[in-house]
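Format notes (please read before filing issues)

Several people have asked whether sequences and structure tokens are stored in separate files. They are not. Every record keeps both together, in the order shown below: the sequence lines, then the token lines. Line labels are part of the format and must not be stripped during preprocessing.
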Amino acid sequence: MAVGTHGESFMETDPPASHPARRRASGDGGTARGLDGLAHIANKIRDAVESVIEGKPSVVRLALTVLLAEGHLLIEDVPGVGKTMLAKALARSVDCSVRRVQFTPDLLPSDITGVSAYNQELREFEFKPGPVFANIVVGDEINRASPKTQSALLECMEERQVTVDGTTYALEPPFMVISTQNPVEMEGTYPLPEAQRDRFTARISMGYPDAAAELEMLDTHGQTSPLDRLTPVAHAADVRDLIEVVRRQHVAPAVKQYAIDLVAATRKHPELRLGASPRATLHLVRAARAYAALDDRDYVVPDDVQDLAVPVLAHRLLPTAEAQVERRRPEQVVADLVKRLPVPSPGK
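Then the structure lines:
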């Protein structure tokens, strides 16, 4: 690991006056106040979500990381472990527009993006926006819809816009898609195509709660849902400001090269028939910036990249037939690469 007393060596040794590190060190206010404000607001959002999701602080932190990295989150696990609850809790903790879509086999692409309908009074077609026109879109059980409907989100997620009948409509920032899916072994599911998975910044699994968290859940969820008591603790404008702070996070050239080397290693690994794309590298560095900001750091260290490697990269990879027979999962491959690749030395 490369954190600890040497972490600051991944800042530029002589940054320009406009650089975040210089502004913070000089005490003139800019990024220092930005980071302090980010930590304060992010902690309020985290506490609000954790009041609903017991015993999963790392999962909540990763969800918040994806939000600040301008990404999209895929939550995959068996039914009943709180996938939809996590998505709803994160959405309700921010006072912005939220729409939920229950994906079913008969759902059409126009049910998501919207449709042009003829207005009898005006005698012309007018666009009726679909649920994707929201700041946070919760797609429940996305892999129960057909691939045709799943693909309706491709343009929205990558380009933050929707094109219907030749007209393009911009989506208001912040924009985040939080989708849940059941494992592909479950009945009535369609595997997400590679292009769809590649647009999700990270994939997480909830996992079963431990005994103490499950006992606490019986008390807090026994009579009423904690979602009913959850009130927004931040506004959409706050999230936009936090995203601007995250964009200014410093990433040293050595850390960028480390992220590139890690992604490139997946493309040459003998157990993978499809490695990670350049988009994966971009998502990994963006997420690392947000991850560092949540630690109240204005620079990224290799540990940030290592901590995020599995959730950001694993869902984009396809194992070979031999690896599947040996039950080698992409998560294991990425974890092995993280252990094997040399970590950049501080100061380089």
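For reference, the curators noted about this record: DSSP finds 16 helices and 13 strands in the chain. The CA atoms of residues 120 and 263 lie 54 Å apart.
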